[in-house]
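Q: Hi! First time doing this. I have a protein sequence and I read that you can turn it into a structure. Is that right? Here it is:
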Amino acid sequence: MSEAGFNNWIERIELFLNNALITDDGPTKNLLSAMRYSTLGGGKRLRALLVYAGGGICNASEQHLDYPAAAVELIHAYSLIHDDLPAMDDDDLRRGKPACHKAFNEAVAILAGDALQAQAFELISSAESGITAEKKIAMVDLLAKGSGSNGMAGGQVVDLEGVDKPMTLQQLQTMHNMKTGALIRVSLLMGVLCGDKVDDQTWSALKKFGDKIGLAFQVVDDILDETQTSDNLGKTQGADRALNKPTYVSLLGLSGAKQTAEKLYEDSLACLDSIGHNTATLKQLANFVVNRQK
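A: Yes, that's right. Below is the predicted 3D structure, encoded as structure tokens:
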């Protein structure tokens, strides 16, 4: 797929999210405004792109894929709101603008994250009739596990408890497989669920691919945190180092982290070799994950 094709998907999900997050003049106007502020008009939309790419290899319609693509972006937005709170990473900048708790206040930010999480599951349950109840339940199960105590939320706890403490490379990988990788893997698999059923071997290969690029995403994130400016990143540069959090760069050095990212990229491509589908788009997304500059 060309860059224009990815941009079309990004524009598509942006429009869908805009329509899903409607504000009004009622008593929850401030809450809804915070939800829109934190979700729209920013971010790489990698998770949504993985939903569309996963569905694309098994003939899912884009109309059906809109729902899980939006759901996973809502979960991601909620996680960023909560990550930035003073009780978490205490960061004032997100996607090049004040974090939600700075633009509104802490209470509204917490509730905006809560509401985005709830709306994510509402979107899946209300998806078009072309998605069977069985598939909806399977997507809810995947998303709940990927964002819960054994996924993203659990990984965040391990991350917070790792401040000022030594961590082995294996412990760091386990943490990021939960905190970052789980939702990336889930994004891909939810897209696959919307299309024709795949065999167990293909499902397993795609799951492994998701794990590899999920980990690669975090390794590159750690590299960019050391090599790019806050303006380019859209968030505070060097924040993890300032908090004395273990990272791939702190454990492996900059060169070692880059080699790890490249190895994960190569491993991700190898996962696709046994799949009897057109995986060109997934390979392009893997390349984007490893070579992005912000």
